[in-house]
Amino acid sequence: MPHGGGAFVLYSDLAVFSGRAHPELTAAICARLGQPLGEVDVFEFSNENIFVQYQENIRQHDVFIVQPFSSPVNTAIVELLIMIDAAKRASAGRITAVIPYYAYGRSDKKDQPRVPITARLIANMLETAGADRILTMNLHAGQIQGFFNVPVDELNALYPVSAYFKTQDLRDVTVVATDVGGEKRARDLAARLDMPLAIIDKRRIGNTETAEALHVIGEVEGRTCLILDDEISTAGTIVSAVNALRLNGASDLIVSCYHPILSGPAVERLLALDLREVVVTDSVPLGPEKRTPNMTVIPVAAQFGDAIARIHSGQSVGALFQ
Ligand code: R5P
Fold first, then answer.
1. Any idea what DSSP says for residue 143?
2. Is the CB of 130 inside a 6 Å radius of any atom of ligand 1?
3. In which band, very low, low, confident or very high, does the pLDDT at 213 lie, cut at 50, 70 and 90?
4. CA 239 to ligand 1: nearest atom
5. In 3-state terms, what secondary structure has residue 20?
6. How sure is the predictor about 5, in pLDDT bands with cuts at 50, 70 and 90?
7. pLDDT band with cut points at 50, 70 and 90 for residue 246
8. How far apart are CA 175 and CA 157, in angstroms?
9. Ligand 1 pocket test target in 140, 237, 270 with most atoms within 8 Å of CB
10. How many angstroms does the Cα of residue 231 sit away from the middle of ligand 1?
11. Residue 204 CB-density burial (10 A; 0-12 exposed, 13-18 middle, 19+ buried)
12. Which of 53, 142, 169, 212 is deepest in the core (most CB within 10 A)?
């Protein structure tokens, strides 16, 4: 039940539910919180309509629904909307959509005639369904937060990922951004690891999934390059970055990303690149078919669990990063 006076309300009953996208992550978040996983039935009829029914009372509860927008992406989105709607109609006190990976992030501006801004459309749909807050991690562009009129907490995988790299014996390493847009992300990692930075001048060819690396800005000759991207989808960006860095004399390569989508030919491409290591998080599910022998997976459940605990008790989430 909520309690407290004035505009700020504390909800005493925490409830965490999982959509079908990433139950392993939700289970790990619940373990971190010391919280039982909420019971909910979610299934699809033969006509592909999704059915949701909460199996416990959530009246006035502080409800968190965990669902990254991973494959099948559109099903994951619609399922989350339906779960939010069901929670609202069950009189939940507050509903937080926990979206470790927010798909359609690249569709965040009308940069060509007659194209949508899908990241904004999905934000509208989440609010219309009844989401009171959003908890997410590494949006493709921070400005996507502004597509919401409800509070958005955006976690940063920089912290667990850089903590991992600090435990490794890394020498003569340069952190590399795959494009100018990713410069800040890579600069933050370079700063935390006390390493120099290089940037690849990348061009995406039309609306295809093909990317071309043009120039390398920075010193990479004879150095190990740690390439950082927010997501790896087809791995086309990584392939062209690796080729450009090798052409410029890089001696060894490590690839890291926060959201390992690994669609289409990605795994095959990563395997063919002869990388020292691929370092990713588990923001999206990583079945055996998506794992490479040189892959290290950094768990993010602790960050999400701690953020949920803080949101629930009305404490600062930003303090987690200090
Ligand atoms: C692009 O702006 C992103 O930061 C990633 O570089 C991109 O999403 C990766 O896609 P792909 O792996 O298909 O090249």
1. G
2. no
3. low
4. 14
5. coil
6. very low
7. very high
8. 16
9. 237
10. 6
11. middle
12. 212
Cα–Cα distance list, 220 to 170, 210, 234, 250, 267 (Å): 15, 24, 25, 5, 25
At position 196, the amino acid (one-letter code) is P
* Tokens 């309509």 sit on residue: 49
Burial of 299 (0-12, 13-18, 19+ CB in 10 A): middle
- The mean pLDDT value of the chain amounts to 94
For the cut 70, the answer to whether the pLDDT of residue 185 exceeds it is: yes
Alpha-carbon span 219 to 279, nearest angstrom? 22
Predicted confidence band at 203 (pLDDT cuts at 50, 70, 90)? Answer: confident
Tens of pLDDT, residues 114-132: 999 999 999 999 999 999 9
DSSP structural state of residue 38: P
Residue 214, pLDDT score: 75
Overall average pLDDT of the 68-86 stretch: 98
List the one residue out of 212, 263, 257 whose CA is nearest residue 234. Answer: 263
Q: At residue 254, what is the residue type?
A: I
166 noted as active-site residue = no
- Set 88, 109, 166, 202: catalytic member: 202
